[in-house]
Structures
1.
Amino acid sequence: MNIIQQLINHQNFTPTEQSINTYILENIHSIAKMSIQQLALATHSSNAAIIRICKKIGYKGYKDFKLALAIELESQKFINHSVDFSTPFYQSENYYEIINDISSLYKETINIVQAQLNINHLERISQLIINSQRIFIFAIGDSRITAMTFINKLMKINIYPILATENYEEIAMAYNMTPHDCAFFMTYNGTNNQFKTCAQILKRKNIPMITITANKNSRLVDYSDICIVIPDMENDYKIGTFYSQISFQFILTVLYSFIYKYDYMHHHQHKKNLDFYIKK
């Protein structure tokens, strides 16, 4: 759920907090330019009351809230609001309409995620994958399928990630890792208890961790050295995991491209030689 939805739907605000909340929603595009003192003055409230609101919706304070809101508003510029990411089409639609719906879903998903990407984070993740002795990928369900595609791409350029969750031995895998390895968690909701246990083990062993998730409150975010958090656009009553898997696939494709670019001519020649034998 995004910030604006949280502000609209939150049920536990005090009357003072609700008054501040109403002002924020009515002046949403001005908040990013306001200091906490200016907001307190405009709402006849206090800094403490504003900070309480921020904490109730999952932020450490006003500064974190304001930054996240600015990013969300920027990403909203790319969103076609006719797209429903959980139910992108309905039974009453004809096949041509469904094709257009799914096309819009793909385009809007990529636009939203692209607006969130941090080049520095992507570069750091790419370098970590390149420089690690072993890359252990933690992914289950539909995320596992997307992870397998990423693994397949890397194998073609002589990088061999290990799918730690392949035989449900992820805790043993985590325990056997060394600081020369890296762990890569791919989980949309970020609530898997096994992953949490793995992350605790990895943190104690000082093993670098990467996470892609849509849950900014996940403990994996706290444990990870580098994290990509995408907007949570799906609800529990979805037709399929369209948005989440398109998002992950797009991010992983960008990471693969960064890795390929790092030693472009070598990878290009290697793949060319490989393709020669595959096509024989």
Note: The two ends are 51 Å apart (CA to CA).
2.
Amino acid sequence: MELKGMMAVGGPQAWPACDEDIKRFVVELVELLKQELGDRLTGIYLHGSLAMGSYYRPKSDIDLIVVVENKLEAALAGKVGVAIARKSENRPTTGNVELSIISADAAKRVPIPVPFELHYSSTWHDRILNHEVDYSEERTDPDLASHLMYVWKRGIGLTGKPIPEVFGAVEWASFMDAVMDDFSWIIEEEHIVETPFYGVLNICRVLQLNSEDSRMVHSKDEGGEWGLKHLPVLYHPLIRQALDIYRSTEPVSEEQRRTGGKDWDRQMLLDFRDYARSYFL
């Protein structure tokens, strides 16, 4: 994959005041989806770090929820998936697009688990291009409850109907189930060693959610800052390293994204994992 116009830019970015090439890519992707979906399209909604003002170019993904009026026919879903995958190959950043297409009914009712028409991310890229996805099957994703909560709380409409008209409220318990499912994966075995800054900052974010009663949702950036204020001092150097690497402007390859291309203290990561496990005992 060729990365177009990569550059190192300092500080967090937010839509729409982000690097011009990132903004242009998102606008072009929105236009592509409008062309592919036509009058079936209800709206396209940005969530995640770019919507919350904590997008760091070398590490962050671009997170989108696309809502369509009705379920997509298998042939159309396959065509749209290929178009998204091809467009993503010309993105200007290492981080990819993470995008789900859901029906207007699913967006409004939020059944658990949430059904989706199409999902695109780096892990789906080759399967989509190799036509290995069976779009005639009904598929659900437990993580979508979390994504839809972020849209509802802190999302940005890029085109189409306003968020309050399209999305129903996500039950907090369903949101927390999705969050804790991801948390459980992080603290299983040695997964935190495989994805250290993601694991450390998400642990902080989950502990923040469980310690507060605000029913607000937080970015990884905000979770890390909370961890430095509220978690034991012993873990502050690890949390600070995770934040520094997450925020770094140093370009990284796809292979380096999980670690930031840096060395980590394996034992400290496992100790922090064990602390996180004990938090819920």
Note: The beta strands are 41-47, 62-68, 97-103, 114-116, 118-120, 139-141, 156-160.
